[in-house]
Amino acid sequence: MPRTIEDRTLEQVGGPGSVLARQRRDHAEMDALMERHRALPDGEERERVLQQTVQLVFSHAFAEETVLWPAVRRLVEDGEVLTSRVEEEHQQINDLVADIERLDPGSPEREDKVRQAFALIRQDIRDEEDLLLPRLQEALPPDRLRRLGAAWDTIRRSAPTHPHPVVPRRPPGNAVLGVPLSFYDRVRDLFGLSAPGPAVRKALAGVAGAVVAGVVAGVLTVIVWKRR
């Protein structure tokens, strides 16, 4: 059984551009943000740290689901089982954060859901670093891990940063519905807007979905699946 990537050196995981190194850096940042949120008293700074955590978690998960998990299903013998487990965790986190965003800051119900979400995020990190990513490393040489990392980073930089119940967990559906919503999410993050209603989500998805799905498909074809 391959060992966790948590304690491997940067060289052992393929260098700083490897998808394994990129994943691990994000995971460390998530953990630091959650710890900071726990240590802060109620107030604007604590809420700001929570929003930073949400934005990182959702853009990270979207890149995983769009680029990384399809590669695992394609290359790892039991990839379907492994990715299904992580996708279920992602859906639970999605539902909890959607509730958190509807509740008043500081309310007991909201605080309980934040604790549940953070516990699931930590479990998700362990499942990925201990079970899933070591299997991917067995299946790919370092140069392919770096190409996969470049594709992952491209998608992550334009991914949604908040929960959207209409977005499925797998491509092409997540690209068609999810990526257009990222534009609204990033405007929302910039100006501190409230969550979009269903009509806004539907309009954004309808206008931009087909175009963005084509871009995503092109990135995956050129960067991920290209063989020497």
Automatic annotation (TrEMBL):
Membrane-spanning parts: 203-225
InterPro entries: Hemerythrin-like
Keywords: Membrane, Transmembrane, Transmembrane helix
Pfam family, one: Hemerythrin
Residues in Hemerythrin-like domain copies: 22-136
Record carries keyword Metal-binding: no
Protein name, entry field: Cation-binding protein
Lineage, uppermost ranks: Bacteria, Bacillati, Actinomycetota, Actinomycetes, Kitasatosporales
